[in-house]
Amino acid sequence: NYALEDLKADLIFEFDADFQHDPELIPQFLEKIDQGADLVLGSRYMRGGSIPRYWGLMRKVLSVGGNFYIRLLMLDRQIHDWTTGYRAIRPWVFEKVRGKITELKTYTFQISFLYFAKKAGAKIAEVPLNFAERKWGESKMPGMSSTLKTFTFVTKTRIFDFLHSRFFKFGTVGFTGFLVNFLFLRLFRSLGLKEFWAWLFSTEAAIINNYILNNLWTFKEKKIGGVKKTISKFFQFNLTSVGALTIQSVFGPLGVKLVGVKYDAAVLAFVVVCLVLPYNYLMYNLVIWKTWKLPWRKKLEPHK
């Protein structure tokens, strides 16, 4: 805070003062900043980086294994060292992140800062760091309780992200659509409709259900408002769902014919999960709510 508010710093550096972080790397950090990076990391685990040979087995396991676990859960292959304390940070990144950090000690701070910086849209780069052997002082390696706290933070954060992700919401809505589809399939069949029409109408019922719930929940940041627009988008939604209707109307009766009516729930589940959901997710993101942009579509769009 002092560096930002009183010194009006153009850049913030974080590093250890015991020379385990080589100050001669600073020009490389500045070069990355000049190239457009907002946050630069000194990485021990990228090509050209290293950790001290004298580290004991347990410390190596915790450091290397911990970073591997974080990279695995964060689904980010570009960042190699989530716990490094050698960083160059643009002031705007610090301003965006500091109010969200609740843990100011141990590796949880480093990980959470980097996590929130990524969410804020910071461009992140890395510089290879050969972490020097300690010559003075004692190791600051945290104890098992701090390690457990870090592990808990990473795990809880990713679970929270998943439960609030568009993909999870889409899957949940898809499951409700499956239930609607199944119940109406049984209803229409009990009314004497032929298998093709029973599958067709029950699929349409599921499409209506999915349109309403996806508009109100899954894609709420892109929510379609207004009566006219909602209705016109619904017809567009149905047009894009012709593929889903065709898939279920063809493969549903075919599956029932192959394995028997008593296994219709299994047939429906297979068709929905393996064929309909991937198709719908693609159509919803590309056509209806337009959250994905294809490169060739960007070229066709007029410049504003």
From TrEMBL:
Keywords: Glycosyltransferase, Membrane, Transferase, Transmembrane, Transmembrane helix
Superkingdom as given in the UniProt entry: Bacteria
Residue ranges annotated for the GtrA/DPMS transmembrane domain, each copy included: 169-289
Record-annotated Glycosyltransferase 2-like domain positions: 1-96
Molecular function per GO: dolichyl-phosphate beta-D-mannosyltransferase activity
Topology of this chain in the membrane: Multi-pass membrane protein
Cellular component annotations (GO), alphabetically ordered: membrane
Compartments it resides in: Membrane
Transmembrane domains' residue ranges: 167-184, 196-213, 234-254, 266-289
UniProt keyword annotation of Membrane present: yes
InterPro entries attached to this UniProt entry: DPM1-like, Glyco_trans_2-like, GtrA_DPMS_TM, Nucleotide-diphossugar_trans
Pfam family, one: GtrA_DPMS_TM
GO BP of this protein: glycolipid biosynthetic process; polysaccharide biosynthetic process
Family: Belongs to the glycosyltransferase 2 family.
Protein's name according to its UniProt entry: Glycosyltransferase family 2 protein
Species this protein is from: Candidatus Woesebacteria bacterium CG06_land_8_20_14_3_00_39_27
